[in-house]
Write a structure and sequence with these properties.
It contains seven helices and 14 strands. The strands form four sheets. A seven-stranded antiparallel sheet has the order 7-8-9-13-12-11-10, with helices on both faces. Strands 2-3-4 form a three-stranded antiparallel sheet. It has 295 residues and is an alpha+beta fold.
């Protein structure tokens, strides 16, 4: 997975805006400001832009509130104005049945499978969708790396090495396996791992705070390992709620065979590669790689 340096992008954006602002100020010393604004900018007011120590541009609104500055192409934004904002995702309700994987979708929940594998989310559509809490059903390669053996045993030793790799790469500052247990995915037995992760959350003012999240991993064993992954806030009540929702449809799950799993993995990878090609990375962008644990 590639990441680009957001601070450099913000600094570049700020530099362009600052140069424009300075050019406008120097011109106003020699011309009448009212005629200049009406002739050249259609009566628009000038905005004073500042740059903080991190290189992030900001401005003050009419009430004196410090506001983040986001930019986009002016002409394109004018063309898009008034167009209906339509969510292109096709959500699935009631029952899921693709690539040999099928299950009953709980009432009040839906499935988004935009990236090749289904995630069960609470909501009736884009307007009330809870994306912070999810139940994903995915092959082991889509959880831990497409280059690993599809029969990789997911145990405590494997998970410790995997999450320590994420800590070493800077994704998390710490992790802890809180407990282990047994569960089911369809008619197959599964090992269950309750994991807490700590990471830095960045506020609008550039300040950071430690935040924790929970991941509950169900993993089958043997051939073609399949996982159910619950992601939510680090809250025991929320974990209990989402675990209960999963268990309400766990018996209805029918798992895909080896060829169907391969189709899911390939579909998911093609979606991520497409997103990667669309992203604009600068020459100094860093590629962060996490080593997938060996068996």
């Amino acid at each position: 997975m590639k990441l680009f340096d957001t601070k450099k992008a913000a600094a570049l954006c700020a530099a362009v805006i600052a140069c424009t602002a300075f050019a406008g100020c120097s011109g106003s010393d020699k011309t009448d400001s009212s005629s200049d604004s009406s002739d050249k900018s259609g009566g628009d007011k000038k905005l004073e832009v500042f740059i903080d120590d991190e290189g992030t541009p900001y401005f003050f609104d009419q009430e004196g509130n410090k506001m983040m500055l986001w930019t986009s192409d002016y002409e394109l934004s004018q063309q898009d104005e008034g167009k209906e904002n339509v969510d292109p995702t096709e959500y699935i309700f009631d029952n899921y049945d693709k690539n040999g994987l099928s299950f009953t979708i709980p009432e009040g929940w839906l499935v988004d499978d935009s990236y090749g594998a289904p995630s069960v989310l609470k909501g009736t559509g884009a307007d009330d969708l809870d994306v912070e809490n999810s139940i994903s059903l995915i092959p082991v390669q889509m959880m831990f790396g497409n280059d690993i053996d599809p029969n990789t045993e997911v145990n405590e030793k494997f998970l410790k090495k995997y999450y320590q790799g994420l800590v070493d790469a800077g994704f998390y500052s710490d992790y802890k396996i809180l407990k282990t247990g047994e569960g089911k995915i369809g008619d197959q037995q599964a090992k269950v791992f309750d994991i807490s992760m700590t990471y830095d959350e960045y506020g609008e003012d550039g300040d950071t705070s430690k935040t924790t999240a929970r991941t509950i991993v169900y993993a089958t064993s043997g051939d073609n390992v399949f996982c159910v992954v619950i992601n939510c806030d680090d809250n025991d009540e929320q974990v209990k709620t989402l675990t209960g929702v999963y268990e309400s449809f766990a018996d209805s799950i029918k798992l895909p065979n080896a060829d169907q799993i391969k189709e899911m993995v390939n579909a998911g990878m093609s979606e991520f590669e497409s997103d990667d090609e669309d992203a604009d990375f600068d020459d100094e962008a860093q590629e962060i790689e996490v080593e997938t644990p060996a068996e």
